[in-house]
Amino acid sequence: QQQVKQSPQSLIVQKGGISIINCAYENTAFDYFPWYQQFPGKGPALLIAIRPDVSEKKEGRFTISFNKSAKQFSLHIMDSQPGDSATYFCAPQDTGRRALTFGSGTRLQVQP
Amino acid sequence: EAGVTQFPSHSVIEKGQTVTLRCDPISGHDNLYWYRRVMGKEIKFLLHFVKESKQDESGMPNNRFLAERTGGTYSTLKVQPAELEDSGVYFCASSRGQNYGYTFGSGTRLTVV
What would the pLDDT profile of A41-79 be if each residue is shown by its tens digit? Predict the structure, then answer.
């Protein structure tokens, strides 16, 4: 049973464009919704996260939108830059257990 | 602040051999986690230590995997005997008690041939 579905699998965006990655989950016990960014040869790094009491959080060019009723959250990268080229993972968490449940990842390529 | 350190970065072993992976968490981080990503699959949780105690080991695939955390500092993950399907990247992460953000290491790429 796949608890977390992430899409798209890969994404190519022109420099300055908007990148959008989506994540759908099934487990209603999830109460923390982070996105991780991973560069080749490195481990995932926390990029931005949201709690279910808000519907949107913005940090610089990165925004999370959260829809609790639809059990979905998404990552928006505004003004995408070549340095944003990486693999992005949603990894919702049931903080009572602390384990992260990772999506399958989205490979983003930002073309100059 | 030094990050989470894992070694070796790469390991190639033959089926049936034993391999031990090591993780040094960030100093002061009581929570230590092991995850792995096998080819074509999602990153999966293996287990969670709080100090030297195993808090959750529900993700350990079978009894060929043994994790320890001596004195609540570094941790080791031993695979004995290794099988072909154990190939993948093994990540360690650590966090402070009340901080939900993890810091991951760069991983150990294990190849079983």
Answer: 999 999 999 999 999 999 999 999 999 999 999 999 999
Query: Taking CA atoms, what residue in B is nearest to A93?
Result: B100
Category of A71 on φ-ψ map: left (φ > 0), alpha (ψ -120 to 50) or beta: left
Classify the phi-psi angles of B51: left when phi > 0, otherwise alpha if psi is within -120 to 50, otherwise beta: left
* Best of B33, B41, B42 to mutate (most A CBs within 10 Å, chain A): B42
Q: Which residues, given as ranges, of chain B have pLDDT below 50? A: none
Are A74 and A22 within 8 A, CB to CB?
yes
Check CB contact under 8 Å for A43 and B48. no
